[in-house]
Amino acid sequence: MPENNTNTTLKRLRNRYRLVVMNDDSYEEVVTFKLSRLSVYIGLSTIFVLLTSLTVALIVFTPLKLYIPGYGSASATKELRQLKIRTDSLEQAMYYKDQYLLNIKRVLQGEEPVALDTTLLNIPVTETTTD
Length: 131
Prior knowledge:
By secondary structure, this protein is mainly α. It is built from 3 helices and 2 strands; from the N terminus they run αββαα.
C-alpha cells in the first residue's frame, strides 16, 4: 500500500499544468507557462536558497555585520569595558566629593552634618556587693 501512495504522489508531482496570463479586455493570451508541481517546488526552493545565501554574503562581507548586536571586534569590546570601568569610578569619586562639599557647607552654616542617634539604651544596672 505505501508503494502505491508514493507512485501516485510522484505522478501528481509530475503532472503538467498550464498557466495562462490573459488580457482581461480582449481575452488575448499574453503569456503561457507549462508547469508541474515539481518544477514549482524546485523553482521556489532555488529562489529561497539564493536569497538566503545573498543575505548571508551581504552581512558577512560588508560592514553591515557591525550592526548586529553582540558582534564587533575584540579591541572595541575591550575598550568599551575599560571606558565603562573608568566612568563608574569617576561617578563614584564625584559623588564622594559632592558629599564632602555638602558636609563642609553644613558645618560652615552651623547645621549638624550628621543626624545624631537619639535612641535610648536600656543598660542593666549591676548590683555591687560590698564586703
